[in-house]
Specification:
Mean pLDDT: 83
Order of helices and strands: EEHEEHEHHHEHEEHHHH
Radius of gyration: 23 Å
Structural class: alpha/beta
Strand content: 5-15%
Number of strands: 8
Shape: globular
Number of helices: 10
Low-confidence stretches: 1-20, 181-189, 339-350, 353-360
Largest sheet: 5 strands, antiparallel
Strand order of the largest sheet: 1-5-2-4-3
Distance between the termini: 46 Å
Length: 360
């Protein structure tokens, strides 16, 4: 067992760096007061899907994402005047490794069984033909169950057998809603798309150290909304952004996460950007950003690794933004290329974007 050991990153963020069962251990100690820090830590560990080996020892599979999560938690623990160490461990026997895997499966079984019970209760109590507000409430419940299933799957590191039953019940509930939705009256038309002209020659403001969603949004803004868009970074909430500046992917921003959409998808919806290559790009951004494996595009893991590489290479946010825009411009062109060269489709390729620079 080696203290604070770091292994090389792998292209697949969800694949352990060893095939023989290496694990990351977080050993922590927090002061008894205030108790809120201990509660917050416990909740975060639950969200990450870790299991406890001893009272203060938590374990995750040794993946780059888990290492990053534990490093953030260690910083928070030290900020709360606690102590934290991250260790790399390997079980000495296959039996010990299997015991750890069984602990993960048992923890996820609790989550899956709770979701299954909730979905079964909805199936049993909901009317055969819900109407009006009851149908809307049932639709919201189905979306919540779908989201919860995706969340549990994202931390089901060892494949809990309880997943199959929970997924089957959620699917049955969704099928019931789909059947009733087919009898719904036409819905009112969606709000008209925003006009890009109104948003031109403006400064778009977002949080520092942009990740996949914000980098993709910057490309989308320059490609489809304002080729001359400029970008700035501020560590504050959207309501405090100066007038004439447009916040995005910030807390409280109009252009941010809404429902189960990332900011990239929100911008596409609001500005009516429905080009197939952009929608495909949106699926990649969605899965990397929200980690819910909704679309499972083959490019997701590689894009995630490239973003990590850019963030490690460029410490200046403007340089990072500029190279991120170039990355998504290239990915977009790779999605457009097959349609443009198809023998059946002689349609013209979209005009090459006026590539703008992320200026200071």
């Amino acid at each position: 067992m080696t203290g604070d050991a770091l292994l090389p990153r792998t292209p697949d963020r969800d694949r352990p760096t060893s095939a023989h069962g290496r694990w990351l251990l977080l050993i922590q100690q927090l002061p008894t007061r205030p108790s809120s820090a201990r509660i917050k830590l416990w909740r975060r560990l639950q969200q990450l899907g870790s299991v406890v080996l001893k009272n203060s020892v938590y374990v995750l599979p040794n993946t780059p994402q888990a290492r990053e999560d534990f490093e953030w938690l260690s910083a928070e623990i030290r900020a709360a005047k606690g102590h934290a160490s991250i260790l790399l461990a390997e079980a000495l026997t296959t039996e010990q490794a299997e015991d750890i895997r069984q602990a993960f499966r048992a923890a996820r079984a609790i989550d899956y069984n709770a979701l299954r019970a909730k979905a079964q209760d909805l199936l049993r109590t909901s009317p055969a033909r819900p109407t009006g507000t009851r149908r809307q409430a049932l639709e919201r419940a189905v979306r919540a169950c779908r989201d919860e299933l995706a969340r549990i799957e994202s931390i089901d590191f060892c494949g809990s057998p309880a997943r199959a039953t929970a997924a089957a019940v959620v699917d049955a509930l969704a099928a019931k809603v789909t059947a009733t939705s087919m009898r719904r009256p036409p819905v009112s038309p969606v709000a008209p798309a925003l006009k890009p002209q109104i948003y031109r020659r403006r400064i778009w403001v977002t949080r520092p150290r942009p990740g996949v969603d914000r980098l993709a949004c910057a490309w989308l803004i320059q490609r489809f909304i304002d080729p001359a868009a400029r970008f700035a970074f501020a560590d504050l909430e959207a309501e405090y952004v100066p007038r004439r500046q447009i916040p995005f992917d910030m807390y409280g921003a109009e252009f941010g996460h809404h429902g189960d959409h990332c900011t990239f998808e929100t911008l596409c919806d609001r500005f009516g950007i429905g080009e197939p290559a952009v929608r495909r790009l949106g699926q990649v951004v969605h899965d990397v950003d929200l980690k819910d494996h909704r679309y499972s595009p083959s490019e997701a893991s590689m894009v995630a690794s490239l973003i990590e590489g850019l963030q490690a290479t460029y410490k200046d946010d403007h340089e990072l933004m500029q190279h991120g825009i170039a990355l998504f411009a290239g990915l977009y062109e790779s999605f457009v290329q097959p349609a443009a060269t198809s023998p059946q489709g002689r349609r013209k390729r979209p005009a090459r974007p006026r590539t703008g620079r992320a200026r200071r």
